[in-house]
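Progress note, sequence design subtask.
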C-alpha cells in the first residue's frame, strides 16, 4: 500500500503547490472544488491521480515475461487440415503392439528353461532331505545290537575284543588260521 499512498500524496502535493488565490482562499463551499467538498462532507473519498505504468516502474514494479518477446511459431511443411480416416494412427498402434509382443515373448523360452531346471533341482534336494530324514529315523529305531552289527559291517566297531577284531581283519585278507 506504500506505493499507492505515495502516489496519492503526490496528488495532494500538487494541490498544495497552487497559489492561495487559485485555491479559493475563502471559506465558502462555492469556491472549493467538488472533490475537496466530497472529502469534507463525509461522502465518498476523493479520487486520486490515475496510476500509469511509468509511475509503477518508478516505484520499483517490474513486469513479468511478456508475450511480445516470444518467437513466432514455425511452419512445418504442408499442413493438411482435412479430416483423417485414422489409418495412420492404427498402423502406428499395430507396430507398437507388435514391438511390445516381441519384447515380452523374446525371453520367455529362456526363463521357462531356467524355471524348469530350478524346479528339478528343488525336487531333487527335497527328495534327498526326505531320504536322509527317513534314514535317521530308522537308525533311531534300531536296537543296540543292530547298531553294533552295522558298525562291524562298516568297519567302525568299538566294543569287541582285540583278538576278535584281529581275527576278522585276517579273515578279510584271506588268512584262515582255523583257530576259531
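Output:
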Amino acid at each position: 500500500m506504500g506505493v499507492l499512498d505515495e502516489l496519492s500524496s503526490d496528488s495532494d502535493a500538487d494541490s498544495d503547490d497552487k497559489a492561495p488565490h487559485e485555491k479559493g482562499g475563502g471559506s465558502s463551499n462555492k469556491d472549493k472544488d467538488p472533490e475537496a467538498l466530497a472529502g469534507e462532507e463525509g461522502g465518498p473519498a476523493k479520487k486520486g491521480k490515475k496510476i500509469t505504468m511509468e509511475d509503477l516502474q518508478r516505484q520499483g514494479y517490474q513486469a513479468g515475461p511478456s508475450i511480445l518477446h516470444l518467437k513466432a511459431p514455425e511452419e512445418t511443411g504442408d499442413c493438411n487440415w482435412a479430416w483423417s480416416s485414422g489409418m495412420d494412427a492404427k498402423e502406428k498402434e499395430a507396430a507398437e503392439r507388435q514391438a511390445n509382443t516381441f519384447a515380452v515373448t523374446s525371453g520367455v523360452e529362456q526363463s521357462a528353461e531356467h524355471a524348469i531346471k530350478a524346479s528339478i533341482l528343488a525336487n531333487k534336494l527335497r527328495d534327498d532331505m526326505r531320504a536322509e530324514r527317513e534314514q535317521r529315523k530308522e537308525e533311531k529305531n534300531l536296537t543296540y545290537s543292530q547298531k553294533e552289527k552295522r558298525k562291524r559291517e562298516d568297519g567302525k566297531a568299538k566294543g569287541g575284543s582285540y583278538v576278535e577284531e584281529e581275527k576278522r581283519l585276517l579273515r578279510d585278507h584271506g588268512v584262515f588260521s582255523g583257530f576259531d
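The chain has a mean pLDDT of 76. Work on this subtask will continue into the next period as scheduled.
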